[in-house]
Design a protein that fits this description.
This protein is mainly α. It has a domain of about 50 residues. It has four helices and three strands, in the order αβααββα. It is rod-shaped. The model has no long low-confidence stretch (mean pLDDT about 85). It holds the Pfam family HTH_17. This is Helix-turn-helix domain-containing protein. It comes from Mucilaginibacter segetis.
Length: about 100
């Protein structure tokens, strides 16, 4: 086996940069195509943890219409995106 490196076997910095860019584009495309789906609806326990509120405070926020919710089969669900928007809008003050 010949251990000598020939001119056509050398990598340039540009070769590495091109490879790096191609690899990043492939990763971005993969994540875009196969990204982890986000959960749209969450239950009361998750909302209480996010907002750091008690059962009573969560009920109060529902009763006052501050937090939109859906009840299905006796289970209360909240839209995660709406909860995040409320958190960002400073309408809810956790204890």
């Amino acid at each position: 086996m010949n251990d000598k490196t020939t001119r056509d076997q050398l990598l340039t910095i540009q070769d590495l940069m091109n490879f790096s860019e191609e690899l990043l584009n492939d990763i971005r495309q993969f994540v875009s195509d196969h990204g982890k789906p986000t959960k749209q609806w969450i239950k009361s326990a998750a909302v209480k943890n996010l907002l750091r509120v008690s059962d009573g405070k969560l009920q109060y926020l529902r009763d006052k219409g501050v937090i939109p919710f859906t009840k299905l089969g006796g289970v209360t669900y909240y839209n995660l995106r709406e909860i995040e928007e409320l958190m960002n809008s400073d309408q809810i003050h956790a204890r």
